[in-house]
Amino acid sequence: MATIKDSVHDYITVEGVAEDLLDTPAVQRLRRIKQLGTAELVYPSANHTRFEHSLGVYHLATRALDNLGIEGKQAERLRAAAMLHDIGHSPFSHNIEGLVARRTGKLHDEVEDLLKEGEVARVLALHDIDPGKVADLVAGEGQFGQLVSGELDVDRMDYLVRDAHHTGVPYGTIDTGRFVRELRFVDGDLVLAENNVQTAESLLLARALMNPVVYNHHVARISKAMLRRATEGLLEAGNATAEEVRRMDDRDLTVALRNCPETAEFAEMLDTRTLYKRAVWAELRDVPDEIIEADHETVREYEREIAARAEVDPDAVILDIPSRPTMRESSSRVVVNGEVRKLTSQSTLVKALQRAQHEQWRMGVYAPDSVTERVGQATEDVLGLDLEALVVDVRRGMHTTLDEFGADVGVDAGPGADE
């Protein structure tokens, strides 16, 4: 048995299969992958790792299993899944996941190939645990997979609290103790017991508040977009394959980007925090559907057209289009008057948060500071944005909607920003 001091959950006791998995190379690699990727460029203390998060997920899973009365082999499989749920992550966490997945066909939770060989496979075999069943749990499949990956999963409970703690932002605080204590299985669904509508709402609210302030902060988005562009350049230059990048850690990728002539400039900009600025920051209602739904190659073509019109280098334009807003947590189930109901039917807060999420959505176009005005104007022309609804902030050359700032147009950097 190992006892580990954690900054969020205090002392965590690790035993059984989880203890044996703890020192495998696949799990130790997570010490070298930051939980929030490039967000430390906004919040300097946000340099916590996937390793400590995995410990936290294991800890909450263990508490949930105890409260649910799940024991034996099923419990050990779930503890293994909790410890291993992030071993499929690429460097810098989610930041380059889409890029790697397009070339490998594997997302971070598709880990079966990583469980069938090496030290992890040996440990699972030692405990007579089927790697395929663990992989299914990591992917959220089956009744018990909901504990690891679902609307009320322990993964979400840990990362919200942990990210809030390490950024210093208070909005992600939730009562994890109550959450794991009130979880129930009803007809195969993981639900919150009676009198817990507000408990479920707190999860929604925490996520809704953390999104604009941390996860989608404009500086974090710009640095993530630059990292993706650099990594794509690394792959196109043939200096690494997507499979190799998938198994790198943050240090490996940083060194590879520095040593590749085609990406060295991007690497230096990220190293020195010499980041691109916003040329366009457009609301959901101002962006045509075909642009929001464009695939990767179409987006790259838009970038080339914008660069040509602005007469800048193609690498000087990055078009950042988030997917449409979703709120997975809103489908959480709670027991109300003895019936299992979806949170959406019980909470007036859900609709307000969904509206806020749509209002917070922004499409970004980023470029070096010296050319943002030209790139912003070119973006309007190429993408057919409404010129009458857009204005130019002369000080920065940043295009945004009038409605976002009102008559006094300016830049609200938000909490934690030091742009």
Describe the protein in words.
The chain is of the alpha+beta class. Among the domains are: 2-168, Hypothetical protein af1432 (Orthogonal Bundle), CATH 1.10.3210.10; 276-324 and 361-419. Helices cover 51% and strands 12% of the residues. It has 22 helices and eleven strands. It has helices at 16-22, 25-28, 50-68, 72-84, 97-104, 112-115, 118-126, 131-138, 142-148, 154-167, 176-182, 197-215, 218-236, 242-246, 250-259, 264-272, 289-292, 296-310, 343-346, 348-360, 372-383, 402-405; strands at residues 2-6, 10-14, 183-186, 189-192, 277-283, 318-320, 333-336, 339-342, 362-367, 390-393, 398-401. The strands form three sheets. A five-stranded mixed β-sheet has the order 6-9-5-11-10, sandwiched between helices. Strands 3-4-7-8 form a four-stranded mixed β-sheet. A hairpin with a 2-residue loop joins strand 3 and strand 4. Helix 3 runs antiparallel to helix 4, helix 4 crosses helix 8 and helix 10 (154-167) packs across helix 12. The radius of gyration is 22 Å and the shape is globular. The protein starts with a strand and ends in a 14-residue tail after the last helix.
Topology diagram in text:
Blueprint: E1 2-6, E2 10-14, H1 16-22, H2 25-28, H3 50-68, H4 72-84, H5 97-104, H6 112-115, H7 118-126, H8 131-138, H9 142-148, H10 154-167, H11 176-182, E3 183-186, E4 189-192, H12 197-215, H13 218-236, H14 242-246, H15 250-259, H16 264-272, E5 277-283, H17 289-292, H18 296-310, E6 318-320, E7 333-336, E8 339-342, H19 343-346, H20 348-360, E9 362-367, H21 372-383, E10 390-393, E11 398-401, H22 402-405
Parallel strand pairs: 4-7, 5-11
Antiparallel strand pairs: 1-2, 3-4, 5-9, 6-9, 7-8, 10-11
Helix pairs in contact: 1-4, 3-4, 3-10, 3-11, 4-8, 10-12, 12-20, 13-16, 15-16, 18-21
